[in-house]
Design a protein that fits this description.
alpha/beta; Purple Acid Phosphatase, chain A, domain 2
C-alpha cells in the first residue's frame, strides 16, 4: 500500500514566514490539515486559501467572524463535515474551543460542543481535525491551568476515531494514545513548526518538523 502523507499545522496566527515555508513544503504531501487559528483578517485568510487551495480547514477560537466567512467558502472547509479521502479513511472536522479568558469569536459552551459533535459521523476510520485538545491531554498552560474540552474528550472516548489532531495550547507538543485513538498535539505554526504525518495501512507515524 502506498503511504499517505499529510502536512498538519495549527495556530499560524498570521505569521507570514511560516505561511511561505509551509506553502513551499506542501507540494510534497497528499493532504494539508489546517487546524484553526490561521487568520484574524480577510486579507490573510485569502493568502491562506491561495497558498493551500486543496487543504482541509477548520476554524480555531482566534479566527475572526469575517475570516471564517471567507475560509468557509473553500471546498476543503470540514467544520461539521465528513469527507472520504481514500484508503478507507475519512476526515471529520470540528473547530472552535470552550470559553477562554480572552473572549474570542470562536468560543462555544461545552454543552453545545457535545451537542454538535455527537451528530457527526465519526468512526474508527476517522482522522478527526480539532482545534482544542481533549481535557487532560496536552492542554496544560502556564503549568497551572488545563484548557482542553471535556466534551471533546467524551466524544473521542465514545466514537473512537483512528486519530485526532489539534493545537490551541501552544506550550505543548507530542503524541499519545487515548484508547485506540492516536492523539497528535500539533506545535504552533507561528513558532515555525508543524507535523509531517505518514499513514500506512492505518498506522500513523508522526514527525515534528522545523520550517
Amino acid at each position: 500500500m502506498i503511504p499517505m502523507r499529510i502536512l498538519a499545522f495549527s495556530d499560524l496566527h498570521e505569521e507570514e514566514a511560516a505561511l511561505e515555508s509551509l506553502a513551499n513544503r506542501s507540494e510534497e504531501y497528499d493532504h494539508v490539515f489546517i487546524c484553526g487559528d490561521s487568520s484574524h483578517t480577510e486579507h490573510f485568510a485569502e493568502a491562506v486559501l491561495d497558498a493551500f487551495p486543496n487543504a482541509f480547514i477548520i476554524p480555531g477560537n482566534w479566527d475572526s467572524e469575517r475570516a471564517n466567512a471567507l475560509l468557509s467558502r473553500a471546498p476543503g472547509w470540514v467544520h461539521g463535515r465528513r469527507v472520504e479521502i481514500g484508503d478507507g479513511l475519512n476526515v471529520v472536522g470540528f473547530g472552535f474551543s470552550p470559553p477562554t479568558p480572552f473572549g474570542t469569536y470562536g468560543e462555544m459552551s461545552e454543552a453545545e460542543i457535545y451537542a454538535q459533535m455527537s451528530k457527526l459521523p465519526i468512526d474508527g476510520n476517522t482522522l478527526l481535525m480539532l482545534h482544542c485538545p481533549p481535557k487532560g491531554h496536552f492542554d496544560l498552560v502556564h503549568l497551572v491551568r488545563r484548557i482542553g474540552s471535556e466534551s471533546i474528550l467524551r466524544i473521542i472516548e465514545e466514537k473512537r476515531p483512528l486519530a485526532a489532531f489539534f493545537g490551541h495550547a501552544h506550550e505543548n507538543i507530542g503524541t499519545s494514545k487515548l484508547g485506540n485513538t492516536e492523539l497528535v498535539k500539533l506545535p504552533p505554526a507561528n513558532s515555525m513548526r508543524a507535523a509531517s504525518l505518514t499513514i500506512t495501512d492505518k498506522r500513523i507515524t508522526t514527525q515534528f518538523i522545523t520550517l
